[in-house]
Every structure is written in structure tokens, then in C-alpha cells.
Amino acid sequence: MTIDTIELKQPDLSHRRGRRSQSSWLLSDFVTGQENAFAAFVCRQSESIAQCGNPLLLVGPTGCGKTALAMTIACHELMLAGDEDDPASMLYLAAADFARNYANAVSADDLEHFRNHIASADLLLIDDIHTIVDKVPAQEELAARIEARVRAAAPTIVTCRRLPSELRGIRPLLASRMLPGLTVPLALPSGDARREIVWRLCQQAELEIDVDWVDVLCRSLPEDFSAPRLAAVVNHLRLLSEHGDALDAPAIRSAIDAVCGGSEPTIASIAKAVARRFKLKTSELKSSTRRQQVVRARSLAMYLGRQLTESSFQQIGEYFGGRDHSTVLHACRKTEALLVSNSQLSQTADEVSEQLRSAS
After folding, report:
1. Distances (CA, A) of 54 to 41, 147, 340
2. Beta strands in the chain (DSSP E)
3. CA-to-CA distance for 92 and 203, rounded, in angstroms?
4. What span, in angstroms and rounded, lies between the C-alpha atoms of 342 and 79?
5. Separation of alpha carbons 100 and 97, rounded Å
6. Cross-strand bridge partners of residue 7
7. 142-155 pLDDT tens trace
8. 38, 58, 283, 325: most buried by Cβ count inside 10 Å?
């Protein structure tokens, strides 16, 4: 079994400024396999972020443990930067809160106080940069604050769902300030790490389950399962056990279906997400217009509808203005071919898919 563990830590509240991001983690350790070996290696570095790579950027999908590792690394950084008599200060801000605070400072004509607040923190942690893709002024301000902190050798940690350069809507200026430091990619747990996490979650829930059934459970799970979803499956099994049900293959299938049941988006939610990305109305995707932008968006929505749901070509066509199954099939095939050659369309498809999965 090729796994590693990193003890997760939370900065002392008395030494921290800003809103608390999370009260506790699912497990006391971050369990990693080969997929996150580099992240474990970075967590064990004795150097300060200022020397190792500033800013430190953690990149990975929702539920992979970005915030937990960011906080753990922050604990080590605070120990290096301060002592018992003069503890170092940390400012944690969700990116959306940074944007909101910046807008309030602009409205109150109090930018100097806002900027001093950012600059005075010994350690700055900005979480979920991807949530401000539509807030250009805030992005430009954040880019300037990061640049100022890097010049001052002030440690800064940022997290993002994807590489900033791959996120549509992230300003090049902000991306260029985030990437020159140290970028640590994170992936969802797989293989041995997934099995270890499931086993620990079962022990934590005091769920008595045979080791062989744990193996069956892990083999039955979808590939893109985050740790919180693993915990949800284990919790469902715990409830079934307390109800008196046997923990066997049907119970495992029931638990997985219960957690996955709400994860499939609807055709309507897909159409809405695609329309918003193309700055169109959903009604335009359903209309008979042949404007190129609408046709491209409609075809992408049809393709994603086929990929992300169990809907038939006929059902998809009915939603999009009563089109027949051959029209939907043609649109899906054409879009599939375009995704290979059109990087922007491929990126849009990935981002919309990820958005829909996160919202489920």
C-alpha cells in the first residue's frame, strides 16, 4: 500500500484574523497516494514560503483538500514567522470576501485602510480564487496586493479549482502574479488512498464492516469521488446498519446511489449554465435561430446533456425546441470533433461540467 499521511492542523484562533474557514476536517490526517505525493512533499518542507515559492498556489477540484492543506502549511509558516511572545498574524479571506471587502472600501473611499490591513498580515491566505472570475476590479486589486507582498517577502497562500491561466474570466495580470511562485496540483483520492480514507471514515463512524466489503465499496465508487462524498456514503451505510440492514452488496449500491442520486444535473440546468457562459438566454437555445453563437452554445448544451445525464437524444431534442434525435446526434458528433481542435470550447465544456458537478 503506497500511502502517506500529513497531520492536518488549524492555526490558533487567537493568532488569526479573518473569518474562520472551516471548524474541523473529515479526518485528522490528509491521506495521500501517488496522486498527491508532491503535495505531501511540499507540506514537509522546513523552508518558509518566501524561500520555497511565493505565492504558494494549491490547485485542485472541489473536495480534494486544498483548504485543509493550506491551513496546515499556514500553521508551519506561522511557527517560522513568530514566537510565543510575539505570535505571527494570519489573515484568511475567501476570494469572494476579498472582492466584497474591496468593493466596500471603494464605496467608503477607504482603500488605504483596506490595503494596509492586507499588507500588515504576516501571512495571507486567499481561498477559492475561481469564485471571482466575474469581478475584474477585485482581480486587479488582488494582483496588486500579491505583487506587493511578494516584493516584501511576505508569505501568501492562494487556492484555486484550476490553474488561473486555464480559467476563463481570470485576468492575465492576476494569473501572472499567482503562477511564478510554487504551484502544487492536487487530485481527488484514488487507489490505496481512497481505500484508506474509507476505512478510516468507517472506524471514525464506529461502523463495523468487513474488510472485503470495504474493497467492494471502493471498487464500486465513481472515479471522481471527493472525500466529503466518501464520508456521505459511509454515513449512509452507518444509518442502514443502525436500521438493522446487512452491510452487503445491495446496501453498498443503495448508499452509493443515494449519494450519487442528486449529482446528475438536469437538461434545464445544463442549458442554463451554458447559456450564461455564452451570455445568452436559455430561450435562445430553444429557439429556431441559426446565429452561429447560439448554434455553438446549443450544440454544446446538447453534447453535455448526453454526457452528464441519462437522457436520450429524443429527450434532449424535445427540451431544445422539439428537435428530433438525428439533429441532436449530429450536434453531439460535431461538438465532440470541435472539442479536439478548439481549446477554448474544450475549456468551456470542462468548466461548465465542473460547475454543474459542484452544484449538485
Report:
1. 17, 10, 35
2. 4-7, 16-18, 29-32, 56-59, 90-94, 123-127, 156-160, 182-185
3. 32
4. 47
5. 5
6. 29
7. 999 999 999 999 99
8. 58
Q: Is the dihedral of CA 278, 284, 286, 289 positive or negative?
A: negative
Q: How far is CA 303 from CA 285, 298, 334, in A?
A: 13, 9, 9
Distance CA 268, CA 275 (A): 10
Separation CA 287–CA 278 (nearest Å): 15
DSSP assignment letter at 89: P
Taking CA atoms, 64 is separated from 69, 271, 328, in Å, by: 10, 27, 35
Select from 275, 291, 295 the least CA-distant residue to 283.
275
For residue 346, the model assigns a pLDDT of 85
Half-sphere exposure of 334 (CA within 13 A, CB side): 14
What is the pLDDT averaged over residues 241-254? 85
Tell me, yes or no, if the pTM score tops 0.85: no
Question: Helix H segments across 13-127?
Answer: 37-43, 49-52, 66-81, 95-107, 111-120
DSSP code for 315: H
